[in-house]
Amino acid sequence: MITARAAASFDPLGRSVAAARAFVRDTLQGWGFADIVDDAVVLTSELVTNAVVHAGTKAEVLCLRSGDGVRVEIADRYPERELPLQHPGERPYADPDRENGRGLMLCAALATRWGVEYTATHKHVWFRLDLPDRPVGTRSAGPVVPDRLLPLADSRVRVAVLQIDASDAISAWNEDAEHVFGYAAEKVLGRPLAELAAWPQTPGTGTGIAEALRLSRWEGSYGIRGADGRVIPVYASHLRVRDAHGEPSIVCLLVHDDERALLQTPVRVASADSLQLTEPRPADPFEVFIGSPAPDDLDGLLQRTVERARDMLDADSAFLLLATDDETELEVRATTGLPSTRQRFARVPVEAGTNRYGSARMPAVHDDLAAVPGAVPLLEATGMRSVITVPLKVEGRLTGSLGVAAENPGRYSNAEALRLQFAADRIALAVESARLGELERLRRGSLSFLVEASDLLAGTLDRDQTLALMAQMTVPTLATWCAVYTIADQSSDPYLAYVLHEDEERIDGLKALLSHVSPPDPVREAGARPWPATAQAVGGETVVLPLLARNRVIGLLTLGKPSEEHFRQEILELAEDLSRRAALALDNARLYSERTAISRSLQRSLLPPGSPAIPGMEVEVIYRAAGEGNEVGGDFYDVFPIRDGAYGFAIGDVCGTGPEAAAVTGLARHALRLLAREGLGGPAVLERLNAAILDEGARSRFLTLLYGELHPQPDGSALMKVVCAGHPLPLRLRPDGQVTPAADPQPLLGVIDDLDLYEQTLTLDPGDVLLCVTDGVTERREGTRMLGDDGLTEVLTTCTGLTAGAVAARVLRAVERFAAEPASDDMAILAFRVPQPRTGD
Question: Which residues does the UniProt record annotate as the domain PAS (predicted)?
């Protein structure tokens, strides 16, 4: 039965894929389906990509919730696009080397069920994901046990009680919480719990803190950062409640992790009545050791294992390590009675010595570790003296190692070792199965993480934004803090470009510490390597990954963990994948910045160096090039001195826009200056320029040009000689508001060889304005309307008495306001004005 639904539509745009992923992720997390979010996001990404990118149609996404799972439907408007079928002799459609069929291949691999449905107008691809089974706890009573077997607790037991409101902020904080964590209530009330919680951040594994706070009941381990900055391991029990007004909140009970027995749900045992009504069955050795129900996650199973092993042999501590895939190292995954957070995910070699006692592949009993220092690296400086270690094996393959230790020497014999080995044999298969399940969830979570990371990195070409994204994607998901070093060239030292810490108040301090440490060496070998130089300055574990792009080290990605934590190998592999994508994105941003800088430098070389000051004349120029990042286009202008008392000016428009038009712009402007200073008149200058343009052959472009010479006169007027070659006519504004054309139209340049041009002379009297524009002004459009020559004339009539700068500004404002859309054509405005004599002069 459908209990909830959510739907959204996405336009056929590339960014819609990320929006669809976010929609599905938010919807499923809101429904409390965190266990299947990653699979749903990956499948949605592929299927929406097929719709909006490949099919080119709008995608409609529908999420349907039921009691035991979710169904997601993606519909596009390309129903005639059939399923790829396999024909004899062809490769199957679900082939990773082929472009099509990948979405369906993922459906077949990840979904519980999936299918394709066609209608006359739509194609629906749907998939269903079932929720994993979750064991339900029951009430129970424990048996009477001797006092010596009771769990340990402080003489004054303290249970921290927190209440979290609907916005995930702390609304209540009792006295025991103040004592355990060191914060006064007023320091934490109103802060999100996530700011204090050191929650496991492995993508795709376990439940995140936000999801845990949405569940009706949750129990497990995590850490709380105390007032002194240390992470305090706690065992917590969360219960979601509602008040009389129906407002939900979460009551959290927290104790020290070594006092978890105060809150931990008891093991379910059968009642006497049920035993009488059912047939007896043989006891499962695994359940005898672990208890029933067994934890449904790997970390819970491992923690239960070490606790039972410790209790079984009355030990002071116990530990469990899992083998890496190549069986060369063991990774610490669970401990009790030891500084667990400090040792978690630390690695030790499988073969630590030459004899059988130095190998984790065989059981070993050490009567006194003081006599064989280094025999068990995990127990160094812990006070443990006697220890048993036994291997966990599945089908003859080493999968882990289980050990117990005591503070007194000579505590254990071969008999205890046999008991522990028997227990290890019972739980080895279950541990390996849970480990493989965790790896599969991690793989799927990593795939979802990398899909979103790639999408974010591909969405920007800004170097600083790329650096920020790199750091924000790693903290806190992969590391506690991150530093990015950039390398300008092979001869440069790494430069500390960006620093991020999950606690924003520590960013400045971390940056200061790193600035006093020599940067890591830029090594070309891929993969994470330790960076011991930070151990004293920063503390904790630090690894460095090279940022390799186009066979060059362009930077270094540095990840750090606090002293009590270690990196998991799976996290380092995910960080390596991310570093490759981030390096390419960073190098693309660098190349884009370099090309942009070159482009701007070349474009600025085509602009006039500046307008000269002309005695007795006001001159104003406004220039706008069309297109993002363009400073020069097909329109151009110039005002320059020819000789004493004579100045040249030009305003023109090359056919088209962009770099090709800008090339002809540069030719025209430089040729005009050169020819004018040779003493040639206006017609001769333009005729020679026409020949130069035609000599360019296929690269030539026709252009319109208004060229003139300006001669200031002793009486305050200005004599002008102009030639208008196919250009919009210059307009003359008199002080009485009359506007008239100041020249006659003549043929444009770059079309025919033989031009017969002539020069026209006019005199600008005091108060007169000469306005010259390109067709980007007169051809400004809004739908079917166009500003035109009449519109420009109307604007100019309102400019009487204004300076040249004010006239040009008013014309520009009128053009911009004529239409709502940005201008799509280049635009140049050149205004001359002869100022009127001041009254009383």
Answer: 161-191
Residue 743, judged by CB atoms within 10 A of its CB (0-12, 13-18, 19+), counts as buried
* Both tokens assigned to 528: 């994470």
Torsion of CA 795, 796, 799, 805, to 10 degrees: 100
Cis omega before residue 822 (within 30°)? no
Specify the number of domains making up the chain.
5
Range list of H helices, 607-734: 658-676, 682-694
Could you read off the pLDDT of 703-715 as tens digits, one per residue? 899 999 999 999 8
At 358, list the tokens. 């130095």
One-letter identity of residue 777: V
Using CA atoms in the order 486, 552, 528, 498, what is the torsion angle rounded to 10 degrees? 10
Sorted by sequence, the CB contacts under 8 Å of residue 186 that are 6+ apart come out as none
**Dihedrals φ, ψ of 833, to 5°?**
-145, 135
Say how far apart CA 581 and CA 779 lie, in whole Å: 46
Task: Tell me if 279 sits within 8 A of 270, measured CB to CB.
Answer: no
Q: How far apart are CA 553 and CA 705, in angstroms?
A: 51
Q: Of 393, 265, 257, whose CA–CA distance to 335 is shortest?
A: 257
Question: Distance between CA atoms of 439 and 571, rounded to whole angstroms?
Answer: 11
Q: How many CB atoms lie within 10 A of CB 96?
A: 7
Q: Do residues 469 and 575 both lie within one domain? A: yes
Domain that holds residue 207: 160-262
- Do 527 and 635 lie in one domain? The reply is no
d(CA 353, CA 795) in angstroms, rounded, equals 93
Q: How confident is the model at residue 356 (pLDDT cuts 50, 70, 90)?
A: very low
Residue 500 maps to a domain: yes
Q: Identify the H or E element spanning 448.
A: helix 414-458
Are 413 and 464 within one domain?
no
Residue 359 DSSP symbol: B
Would you list the DSSP string of 3-66?
Answer: -EEEEEEE-SSTTHHHHHHHHHHHHHHHTT-GGGHHHHHHHHHHHHHIIIIIS-S-EEEEEEEE
614 closest CA partner among 641, 587, 636, 582 = 641
Residue 782 lies in a domain: yes
Is the same domain home to 561 and 675? Answer: no
**pLDDT score at 93:** 45
Q: Determine contact, residues 730/793, Cβ cutoff 8 Å.
A: no
Indicate if the pLDDT at residue 80 is higher than 80.
Answer: no
Verify that 423 and 521 share a domain, yes or no: no
Cβ atoms of residues 795 and 811 within 8 Å: yes
Structure tokens at 182: 């060191």
> What is the CATH number for 173?
3.30.450.20
Per-residue pLDDT at 137 exceeds 50: no
Does residue 320 have a pLDDT over 50? yes
Helices (H) and strands (E) in the chain — how many of each? 20, 34
Residues 6 or more apart from 81 whose CB is under 8 A from it?
55, 123
CATH of the domain at 554: 3.30.450.40
- Is there a contact between 529 and 576 (Cβ–Cβ < 8 Å)? no
In the chain, % helix, strand, coil (3-state, to 5) comes to 35, 25, 40
Q: Would you state the structure tokens that stand for residue 400, as one six-digit string? A: 């882990």
Angle at 53 between CA 52 and CA 59, to 5 degrees: 10
Residue 25 domain-assigned (yes or no)? yes
DSSP string, 133-167: P--------PPP--GGGSPP--SS---EEEEE-TT
Higher-confidence residue: 21 or 206? 21
Least confident of 357-361, 496-500, 613-617: 357-361
Task: Give the SS3 label for residue 408.
Answer: coil
- Residue-wise pLDDT for 173-195, tens only, equals 999 999 999 999 999 999 998 88
Q: Which residue has the tokens 């592949």?
A: 361
Distance CA 69, CA 40 (A): 11
Q: Are residues 118 and 172 in the same domain?
A: no
